[in-house]
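fwd from M.: "can u put these together and see what the complex looks like"

so here's what she sent:
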Amino acid sequence: MGTEQQAGQRQPGFRRIFNVIATGDRVSAVDVVLYSMLIFVPLAFIVGFMGWGGLWVFLTSALAIVPMAKLLGAATEELSARVGSGLGGLLNATFGNATELIIAFFALQAGLTTVVKASITGSIIGNLLFVLGLAIVAGGARREKQTFNATAASASSSQMTVAVAALIIPAVFVAAGSTKSHSDSVLEGISLAVAAVLLLTYLAQLLFSLRTHSHLYHDEAVEEMGGKVWPIRKSLIVLAVCAIIIGFLSEFLVQGVEYLTSTLGWSELFVGVVLVAIVGNAAEHMSAVTVALKDRMNLSMSIALGSSTQIALFVAPLLVFVGYFMGGSSQLTLLFHPVEIVGIVLAVLIVDIVSRDGESNWLEGVQLLAVYAILAVAFFVLE
Amino acid sequence: MAEQDSVQPRQINLGSALNAICSADGPTLVDKILFALLIFVPIAFVVGFSGAGGGLWVFLTSALAIVPMAKLLGTATEELASRVGSGLGGLLNSTFGNATELIIAFFALQAGLTDVVKASLTGSIIGNLLFVLGLAIVAGGVKRPRQTFNAVAVSASSSQLGVATIALVIPAVFAATTPAGLRSGLVENLSLGVAGVLLLAYLAQLIFTLRTHPQLYTEEAEEEVGGVPWPIRKSLLLLAFCTIIIAFLSEFLVSGVQYLTSTLGWTDLFVGVILIALIGNAAENMAAVSVAMKNKMNLSMSIAMGSSTQIALFVAPVLVFVGFFMGGKSELTLLFQPFEIAAIVLAVMIVDRIARDGESNWLEGVQLLAVYTIFAVAFFLHPLGR
């Protein structure tokens, strides 16, 4: 009887973690995968503190961040469901990219500004090309075609265009200016100003989606919710614990990145654009693919496109300000490498072409993946 | 009686040669012109081997001779394809559809004319999009208020072209932003990687059109086939025969090209983008125009745009690998001149603009031709290719 009770008590505790990760009402295959990846969290700590080789540090911390990011996202959603739609939407939007922000923070601290910028690029083109491409292929593999709301997709497109303009201007400025205008302080001034404009735009977008035109986004938000809502205290505790753990894991990840670039000689651009970006956005990847499999293409597109715009309008400018206050080698400008800029512009263009008709089939997904692969090859070869 | 017997076989031979060129139900005006052009095949051989009349004549006769041979090769491929079932047949059709371009490019690569080869790839893409489509829209629209076509199918082609454009843009951006000292070997590696991705994308497209979504394309495929299919042996023989002849003609053509660029001082860009591309795609040109005149705009658009995507997704990457195995001066990268890239991007954009509404009229065709002419003038004058 005593042992049975013990087992009975242990199981709910065990299950509670499970429920945190499980989306909605049913445990899906993705949830099981994420759940089993939690094993990498202790592994990453052991490998990280013992310092067993850079490659292993990178791999274990990368794999450990994925389920933690999902947990953090779940806690944010639960919290925002409690506090009402206005503040809740703000929370969701702000903490939706908390993982990327934390990773970038530690990378900035280590002075890896190229990697941080590359991971911003990578998050944008990764969401537009890799995530959306995978989702369209996965959803379209057994269907002739899938449909979605072309108007919503085109609204995202115009937001992305604003972001693209912001990311291009500093590079054009440097390319067009004389050597005098190259001076760092001028570039920093421009970056800060552009970042401020982007944050204001982001604020306008929040007002639009949460206040003045909330009905446009209503049905998607409803789809996402499911199951019982947590008490506020539980959400806050999970949120705090996840943020701290991700902080440590990010520190390990950054060590691993330094190993990859300095010892293995991989280009910083490739590591940032492809590897770090995939790690930071893995949770979004999985949910976009999962809902595409269920033929909910509207939600899938809004996850992928929404994540891209958030990175560009919120994460990137915020990091500029963070870098400014950290100072020294952490100072971040919005001066991107020309290949990054071309990559972002082309990604926005091709997504616009593919999504304009409101229909998708698996070939279109393959096309997005092909563009992603081409860009990845270019970043890998780049010195 | 004996006299009649000896006459008849010749007539049949002549007739079957005509039939080989004819599409479907009967000899059209286009077929007759193509048939008449066959006369240039022996002339090209005589001029080519004797060198009579110099490089200009070598170029002209071999160019004119390639046009009907390309058509014959295409017919043999189609006949063979209709025999072997739709899956393998579709594969054959799309692979050998650009055999002429591939053969010409092969010999040009062997002669080390990589700039001309790249320019001919550019020219095939913009030529199909602007010149072929422009001519087809004008020819089809001249006696009609407007013509309609399936905008969805066109938009699918547009997105394929988008992928191809990106593949051609990236190496140039890459090279432009890499200091020249660091560049050695990198652009070659990048080109091979990009070519691999393009071939995979092409494979996906084949699976899409032949396996998972053939219903989107059947109506077009049916239109194309007609009459009694040939025996397989006849198709294979003709295929082999045409390939060999085209190979010889391509050699002559390449020596003619060298004359044009070195002696007359024409730019590599102009010769490749305009002349070679027109010759290699002449058969498609005629097919697209003649179906447009019959008001089959869907087919016309799919010939023109399909040919462009095939060049970009199949011919270009295959040539990169071929050049890699030939080595030395034949090595081909996907590093295009910025001016070529601008032309491709603008061509894709203007076609997308014009085709998006699913309707065409002759003025839109003239607009495409105008853009093409502007490019041709610019390529002729551009100092880079000299």
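replying to her w this: Residues 1-15, 21-25, 220-225 of chain B have pLDDT under 50 and may be disordered.
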